[in-house]
Amino acid sequence: MEERLEIRLSGSGGQGLILAGIILAEAAILDGKNAVQSQSYGPEARGGASRAEVVISDEEIDYPKVTKPQVLLALTNEALNKFKDNLASDGIIIIDSSINKPDTPYKVIQLPIIETARDRIGKSMVANIVAVGVITALTKVVSREAVEKAVLNRVPKGTEELNKKALYAGFELGEQLS
Amino acid sequence: MEERLEIRLSGSGGQGLILAGIILAEAAILDGKNAVQSQSYGPEARGGASRAEVVISDEEIDYPKVTKPQVLLALTNEALNKFKDNLASDGIIIIDSSINKPDTPYKVIQLPIIETARDRIGKSMVANIVAVGVITALTKVVSREAVEKAVLNRVPKGTEELNKKALYAGFELGEQLS
What we know:
The structure is a homodimer.
Chain A: E1 4-12, H1 17-30, E2 34-41, E3 49-57, E4 71-74, H2 77-83, E5 92-96, E6 107-111, H3 113-121, H4 127-139, H5 144-154, H6 160-175
Parallel strand pairs in A: 1-4, 4-5, 5-6
Antiparallel strand pairs in A: 1-3, 2-3
């Protein structure tokens, strides 16, 4: 892993991307790293593409803003179009299967994240946790043990098993490609 | 209000301060402003004082980190001791009544935030929303209408009425002093 890794999670409001970002950040500290999780809102954010960002580093993080992410997750077309440019040169874009493949110089990985949440786990609202599993398996930015702990710490009481299943389904999706 | 306002919410993990920060940030955008909400984690964060931060501005926010907050909320002694220095010169510190009053050049406002949540609302876990109400009434950084909408958007389904009561109790606590 590089010393500083920037991740941008994008989609629509209500897809739980802030929670996904918090979970990745907390997993990173369980792994002994530093992390900042943030979301920026402007007046244009109402109704538009939403995003949550995570910076993970072995060092203290002085500049917490994501400028050139190594990893972009996009769960909607609108989010992809808004954020698909200006990744790091080795950046990867992870998109849901429901999204049109973009014309881009970056590596694009398309996976049935929302479908897996809806049809295999039975709740489309856990697509965020499936995505966390995908990112973990693909990028190894956090360990599976740490991310599982962070998921169980952070999801609402009573939904732990459901979310654990979603996480494992995400691991499986991601590891086919890693 | 100044052009840029920095708020630091501190306490222990599990007190819901990230959610409080997200609510303040979302209220700010409902008011037509820009906002960034973030939390930083280092290895020392495990078990220690936790914090969530919000920057609100009329302008676009280039530097999202809180360096000299105008408002510090502290819900535990440990958090107060960690964060009580380096506020803005006109900064205020809002502390829970359970905390020892610090020796500090800044204005200190002590209010029964946790007691109000526990004894008046009946759930100590809504202390975070009482605190959001206090900060809103005291600082007017966001409008009451916007913060109420943001609370109702963000709290778990089925807890809306409870959290609305907590918010209004916070307004009352804060307005006695504003």
